Amino acid sequence: MNQYYAIEDSFPIVEINRLAIPERNAFKPIYQMHKWFARRASCVFRAILLGCMKPLALDENGKPLKSGAEVIMEEFYKDHTNDPDTKGKVILDPFMGGGTTVVEALRLGCKVIGIDLNPVAWFIVKTEIEPVDIDELKASFDRLAERKVAWSGKSVKETLLEQYKTECPCCGAGREEAEIIYTFWVKSAICTNPLCKKEVPLFSDYVIAMKSPSIR
């Protein structure tokens, strides 16, 4: 009897869509190492890979005991690094792009071959998956942070941090500096009044929230 796999029966489109929507707004850190165009949601690729490797159990009549969609969702959150159904399986992506297939297949314990003509894609994926010596990385970061900048005469760290200061909206101009945590892109438009014609920011208030300091 031929082996029957989950994806050949059905796919949990609704369930995976529920996971993909929030992921599209906040990709996992590994996929934020570098911009890649049309980056795909990792949950979709994980589900597809599992569906292609997870066999369906059949009854005596050759009918699946569970639907493919059920099997995929049952296996979705499990650790598959030592799963005999996935470990050591060879996955080829001849157009790997940003490497979603490569990363997700490695998480399932597969052996992966990724190919792309674009050298940027190759470098991004290589950086995503190759082992990193954390101590060496931290030491390199510290050396870079303390390197002197010719035009400022200060370290790289000091020069960059100076660009992330602003006037506190509560204390008033010149009274106290505040660190910039996040920068909002504010669109603007030209005033339609012919006597004005000034550029007007389309933003009602730059204060997002007012909270009292709390200590826990």
From TrEMBL:
Coiled coil start-end: none
Gene Ontology molecular function, alphabetical: DNA binding; N-methyltransferase activity
Record's keyword annotation contains Transferase: yes
InterPro entries in alphabetical order: DNA_methylase_N4/N6 (IPR002941), DUF1156 (IPR009537), SAM-dependent_MTases_sf (IPR029063)
Pfam families linked: DUF1156, N6_N4_Mtase
DUF1156 domain segment(s): 11-56
Keyword vocabulary terms for this entry: Methyltransferase, Transferase
One GO BP annotation of this record: methylation
Protein name: DNA methylase N-4/N-6 domain-containing protein
Organism: Candidatus Hakubella thermalkaliphila
